[in-house]
Amino acid sequence: MISLLQGAATTAAETTEAPGAGDEIVIITESATHGAETHSVYGDAAHSAAEGAGLPQLDITTFGNQIFWLVVTLVVLYLVLSRVALPRIAAVLSDRQGAMTGDLMAAEEFKQRAREAEAAYDKALAEARGEAQRIVAANRAEIQAELNNAIARADAEIAARTAESETRIREIRATAETDAREVAQEVTAALVAAFGGNADNAAVTAAVDSRMKGAMQ
Amino acid sequence: MATATGGGLEFHPMDQFVVRPLFGDGAVAWYTPTNVTLWLFLTALAAIAVLVLGTRGRAIVPNRAQSVAELAYGLVYKMIEDIAGKDGLRYFPYVLTLFMFIVFANLLGLVPMAFTVTSHIAVTGILAMAVFLGVTIIGFVKNGAHFLDLFWIRSAPLAVRPILAVIEVISYFVRPLSLSIRLAGNMIAGHAVIKVFAGFAAIAAVAPVAIIAVVGMYAFEVLVAFVQAYVFTILTCVYLKDALHPSH
């Protein structure tokens, strides 16, 4: 990849040589290739060039330094992250999760409570309606009972009166028969006497009875 | 950096990668603070700033900084969970460290005059070797000899298995190489191309084209910076999955 890049850079440099009009283009990838004339500007580059030519990445003399400081950095970073940052972030995330589930549960509870309240309201309404119906039914039954009572009493009175009247009628009828028999006997006796006969009481009675039997039937 | 010295054009596209001591002009010993040291520290500081300072508020409703931190956390967390499974989450802190380090090293490298630590094969090589060795050790510790099932593919016909085993072993040992060279190569290439285009800006006739090209390349490199960090992390997760469940 690096050599490819160098190639690209070289081609790019060559193609721009024309507008550069004779400018000298030097591509420096190996510090060793430039020496004294750039030493003042690139003292450090030249310094590293003295130790090892080529890519700075391949300068093995700096590896120990890089590895040492990298390990120091990584250990510090690991300790800080694992001791401070991660527990804190984990706590924040779990707090948030907890708060969210808590809120959701509270909302669910409120919903449940509202549902219960509605159910209680419905139940109370149904009970009130039932109570009202029971009261109406009780009143109706009471009135019905009173009414039945009154009717029964009236019926009984009517029956009593009817019976009384019938007795009276029977009595009247009985007295009327007796009276009629007496009148008939007396009239018969008087008629027999008037015609000059001697009225035999027993005969008159028998005659009236036989006549009355026919009349009464 | 290109300088027109005495009417001539000189391109130094690779000078940006030179490791220099921060103080003085001496040799680079293993303990010398260098520009690598400086930019490694800045990378760590940037990652810490986002993940630690950003979440300072611990808000239930996050502000922007906290959202970024949570986004990074969620991205890597979900990646491990999806790829390596629940038991991969034990290694989440290290994978997140890796991701944050690479993404910030790549992005900070795009700051003008910056040094890109991930453009060095020594740095990416250590990152890749850490993943490779870590995953191999985890594989043997978790599965013992069964870890070798990774190379012995039981779903293949018996006759093909030895050949596949050879291929699998080779591909296994190429992993750290491909991981490190992919990352460093992308960084080197992008930065060098930008430098070369910037060098052409010294020639008046092609300057507008060169500047537009630099802007375009820069935008592309921002994308590459993120994508390479993502790729490195996702491959780490894939290798972790192989270590945890070698029989699949």
UniProtKB/TrEMBL annotation, chain A:
<dbReference type="GO" id="GO:0046961">
    <property type="term" value="F:proton-transporting ATPase activity, rotational mechanism"/>
</dbReference>
<comment type="similarity">
    <text>Belongs to the ATPase B chain family.</text>
</comment>
<dbReference type="GO" id="GO:0046933">
    <property type="term" value="F:proton-transporting ATP synthase activity, rotational mechanism"/>
</dbReference>
<keyword id="KW-0138">CF(0)</keyword>
<keyword id="KW-0406">Ion transport</keyword>
<comment type="subunit">
    <text>F-type ATPases have 2 components, F(1) - the catalytic core - and F(0) - the membrane proton channel. F(1) has five subunits: alpha(3), beta(3), gamma(1), delta(1), epsilon(1). F(0) has three main subunits: a(1), b(2) and c(10-14). The alpha and beta chains form an alternating ring which encloses part of the gamma chain. F(1) is attached to F(0) by a central stalk formed by the gamma and epsilon chains, while a peripheral stalk is formed by the delta and b chains.</text>
</comment>
<keyword id="KW-1003">Cell membrane</keyword>
<dbReference type="InterPro" id="IPR002146">
    <property type="entry name" value="ATP_synth_b/b'su_bac/chlpt"/>
</dbReference>
<keyword id="KW-0813">Transport</keyword>
<keyword id="KW-0472">Membrane</keyword>
<comment type="function">
    <text>F(1)F(0) ATP synthase produces ATP from ADP in the presence of a proton or sodium gradient. F-type ATPases consist of two structural domains, F(1) containing the extramembraneous catalytic core and F(0) containing the membrane proton channel, linked together by a central stalk and a peripheral stalk. During catalysis, ATP synthesis in the catalytic domain of F(1) is coupled via a rotary mechanism of the central stalk subunits to proton translocation.</text>
</comment>
<keyword id="KW-0066">ATP synthesis</keyword>
<feature type="transmembrane region" description="Helical">
    <location>
        <begin position="67"/>
        <end position="86"/>
    </location>
</feature>
<dbReference type="GO" id="GO:0012505">
    <property type="term" value="C:endomembrane system"/>
</dbReference>
<dbReference type="InterPro" id="IPR050059">
    <property type="entry name" value="ATP_synthase_B_chain"/>
</dbReference>
<dbReference type="Pfam" id="PF00430">
    <property type="entry name" value="ATP-synt_B"/>
</dbReference>
<dbReference type="GO" id="GO:0045259">
    <property type="term" value="C:proton-transporting ATP synthase complex"/>
</dbReference>
<keyword id="KW-0812">Transmembrane</keyword>
<dbReference type="GO" id="GO:0005886">
    <property type="term" value="C:plasma membrane"/>
</dbReference>
<keyword id="KW-1133">Transmembrane helix</keyword>
<keyword id="KW-0375">Hydrogen ion transport</keyword>
<comment type="function">
    <text>Component of the F(0) channel, it forms part of the peripheral stalk, linking F(1) to F(0). The b'-subunit is a diverged and duplicated form of b found in plants and photosynthetic bacteria.</text>
</comment>
TrEMBL record, chain B:
<feature type="transmembrane region" description="Helical">
    <location>
        <begin position="222"/>
        <end position="241"/>
    </location>
</feature>
<feature type="transmembrane region" description="Helical">
    <location>
        <begin position="36"/>
        <end position="54"/>
    </location>
</feature>
<dbReference type="InterPro" id="IPR023011">
    <property type="entry name" value="ATP_synth_F0_asu_AS"/>
</dbReference>
<keyword id="KW-0406">Ion transport</keyword>
<keyword id="KW-1133">Transmembrane helix</keyword>
<protein>
    <recommendedName>
        <fullName>ATP synthase subunit a</fullName>
    </recommendedName>
</protein>
<dbReference type="Pfam" id="PF00119">
    <property type="entry name" value="ATP-synt_A"/>
</dbReference>
<comment type="similarity">
    <text>Belongs to the ATPase A chain family.</text>
</comment>
<dbReference type="InterPro" id="IPR045083">
    <property type="entry name" value="ATP_synth_F0_asu_bact/mt"/>
</dbReference>
<feature type="transmembrane region" description="Helical">
    <location>
        <begin position="194"/>
        <end position="215"/>
    </location>
</feature>
<feature type="transmembrane region" description="Helical">
    <location>
        <begin position="121"/>
        <end position="141"/>
    </location>
</feature>
<dbReference type="InterPro" id="IPR035908">
    <property type="entry name" value="F0_ATP_A_sf"/>
</dbReference>
<dbReference type="GO" id="GO:0005886">
    <property type="term" value="C:plasma membrane"/>
</dbReference>
<feature type="transmembrane region" description="Helical">
    <location>
        <begin position="91"/>
        <end position="115"/>
    </location>
</feature>
<keyword id="KW-0066">ATP synthesis</keyword>
<keyword id="KW-0812">Transmembrane</keyword>
<dbReference type="GO" id="GO:0046933">
    <property type="term" value="F:proton-transporting ATP synthase activity, rotational mechanism"/>
</dbReference>
<keyword id="KW-0813">Transport</keyword>
<keyword id="KW-0138">CF(0)</keyword>
<keyword id="KW-0472">Membrane</keyword>
<keyword id="KW-0375">Hydrogen ion transport</keyword>
<dbReference type="GO" id="GO:0045259">
    <property type="term" value="C:proton-transporting ATP synthase complex"/>
</dbReference>
